[in-house]
Structures are given as structure tokens and as C-alpha cells.
Amino acid sequence: MDLFSAQHPDFVSLAEGACWLPGFALPVMDTLWSGLQQHLSAYPPQQMMTPMGLMSVRTSSMGSWGWVGNSRGYAYSATQPGKHLPWPAIQPVILKLAEEAARRAGYPDFVPDSCLINVYAPGSKMGLHQDKDEMDFTQPIVSLSLGIPATFLFGGAKRTDKPVKIPLQHGDVVVWGGASRRFYHGVLQVKTNIHPLVGAQRINLTLRKAR
Ligand SMILES: O=C(O)CCC(=O)C(=O)O
Ligand SMILES: [Fe+2]
Q1: In what residue span(s) does the Fe2OG dioxygenase domain sit (predicted)?
Q2: N or C: which terminus of the chain has fewer CB atoms within 10 Å of its end residue's CB?
Q3: Domain containing 141 — which CATH number?
Q4: CA-based end-to-end distance of the chain
Q5: Which atom belonging to ligand 1 lies closest to the Cα atom of 185?
Q6: Tens-digit pLDDT profile for residues 166-181
């Protein structure tokens, strides 16, 4: 028997500068989930428009910079869509978790100012794209999954680079930065399923330093 594959790894390298941290968020999940539920009732996720059309995911944000789209483009915004109001601060449990995950991945100086919340109902997906609207590419991306499983695609520097398929579960974190900071990534169509805590949805938090 292969003893290594029989173990549950807590760190899986994906590329230079990128790793998958299975179950990293589970120890703080109770606090995290109750705070996130409160946030989602106060700031209900909305389907955003992009130049490519209406997104299948619904989004909300925390932090100094939220993410908003419309038919002309998308950008970080200090205010909620259609309002002159800021987003609430990134909740402390989320901020601490993101900083700890970044440290584990080799980025000890990560201080995110943006937390995008993507809600995937079964059938939702996100096409291959690069995260490239941030100002400082020395800062990594920290991505946390909750709820039903999803297949995360992690490719390379070119859109045509064949992505690896990562079966993300509730509580998993993926971090990418350094040499893989602008690598293409996406999410396959989420399959119908029910998670005992989160229900019939996948929620992803993307923590970034936007400015
Ligand atoms: O949902 C995910 O796992 C990825 C989200 C993402 O790539 C993004 O928000 O830019
Ligand atoms: Fe992304």
C-alpha cells in the first residue's frame, strides 16, 4: 500500500507559488459560517453583469474594495452596487484565516483589503480567467470553499495550458501567488448536492489585496 496517498495531506503543491490546503478552515468553521450567514442576509448576493453576459454565480463583498460588474466592464469599487455605501469590514475570523493560510503557503505579509463572496447554486460555474485587476502582484490570492463540492481548475500562464482538476471540499483553501499569481483558473459547473451545514450551494471567498 502506498502510505503517502493513504494519508490525508494538509498541503498539496499545485505549481510554483500555489498550494491546496485541504480542510484548513475547518477548525474555525462554526464562527465563520455564522458570521457569513449574517453577512449574506444583510448584503444579499446579486447576479452581476459582465461584458460576457450575466454571471451564473451571485456575489457579495466585504472589505474596503468590493467587486462589481456591468455590461461595460468590471472593477473594484469602494461602494455597493447602486448605492453610496461602503461594504462592511472583512470579518476578523476570515481575515485571520486568510493571513494564516497565506503564511502557510509562504506569503507572511498578506493583508487583504477585499473579500469577494461567490455563491454557486448547482449549475453555476466560472470560466477560466486570470485575476489581474489588483495593483500589487506580489500579494497572493487566498480562496476558501464552503458547502457542496466543486471542481476547481488550475491552469498555467496561458489560457491553453491544460488545467489540473482539484476536487474542493467544504473548508478547503487554495493559495496562489509568486510565479503562479496570474495563472488561469475557473470552476466547473457545480453538481446538485446538499451539504449538511451550508445546504444546496457552494460558497467561495476570494481574499485579495486590491489596492
Ligand atoms: O470560486 C472559486 O473557486 C474561484 C473564484 C474566482 O476565481 C474569483 O473570484 O476570481
Ligand atoms: Fe479568479
Answers
A1: 111-211
A2: N
A3: 2.60.120.590
A4: 49
A5: 7
A6: 999 999 999 999 999 9
Q: Which residues constitute the domain of residue 28?
A: 8-208
Determine, yes or no, domain membership for 80.
yes
Q: Which of 188, 204, 207 to mutate to test the pocket of ligand 1 (most atoms within 8 A of CB)?
A: 204
Note whether residue 24 is domain-resident. Answer: yes
Model pTM score? 0.96
Which residue among 21, 61, 143, 202 has the greatest number of ligand 1 atoms within 8 angstroms of its CB, and so is best to mutate? 143
Q: Mind giving me the DSSP string for 95-150? A: HHHHHHHHHHTT-TT----EEEEEEE-TT--EEEE-----S-TTS-EEEEEEES-E
Residue 1 lies in a domain: no
HSE-CB at 57 with a 13 A cutoff on CA atoms is 23
Is 100 among the domain residues?
Answer: yes
What distance in Å separates the CA atoms of residue 61 and residue 206, rounded to the nearest whole number?
9
Contact predicate 176/18, CB 8 Å:
yes
- The string of pLDDT tens digits covering residues 140-164 is 999 999 999 999 999 999 999 999 9
Entry field: residues in the chain? 211
Contact between 203 and 60 under an 8 Å Cβ cutoff? The reply is no
